[in-house]
Amino acid sequence: MRGFLVLCALVAAPFAVSASQDRSGSAPREHDDAEQCESANGDDDRSNDVRTLTGQQDGEEADEGEEGEEQCAPPPPPPPGVTVDGRVYDVATGLGLSGWSVDLSGSVSATALTDGNGNYSFTVPAGTYTVCEGMPLPGWTNTFPPNGPTCPFGLGYGPFILTAGQSASLNNFGNTHP
User: Fold this and answer.
1) The domain 82-176 is classified under which CATH number: 2.60.40.10, 1.10.238.10, 1.50.10.10, 3.30.750.24?
2) Neighbouring residues of 167: CB distance < 8 A, sequence distance ≥ 6
């Protein structure tokens, strides 16, 4: 089904027109400007699309066959996250240990692997977190930190509470081997 919109008179003030198609068979519903053109999960169900059409005003003439510009309402910005980071290293040499796992638990649980310099980082929503080193490689023993919460393979950091935009850095894990 096609729909047509006719504007009989234009005023000097900016204007916007919203249109939607309800495929559910229910009564039309009101839309607000914050709705998006595409669903949040990216599927093709566009039954609740909201678009804004802008057109000519103040005596401007439209080109033959020109239609108004279609614009989607912008999505709201994501809430600011928090960062938890640190390093896994060899106590004897001070060198970072690559490929070691670090576990984050709390408001969100996640696992990260250290990079070539032994660094790891999590970016997660604000909340309460504890950081633990994962299982050390055979022959290695976790010796740092010297105190903190008990973790499956040694001691860790936390729990700490982070609010939006904060970070918890220097959550470092030292390891030794014979």
Assistant:
1) 2.60.40.10
2) 82, 83, 84, 85
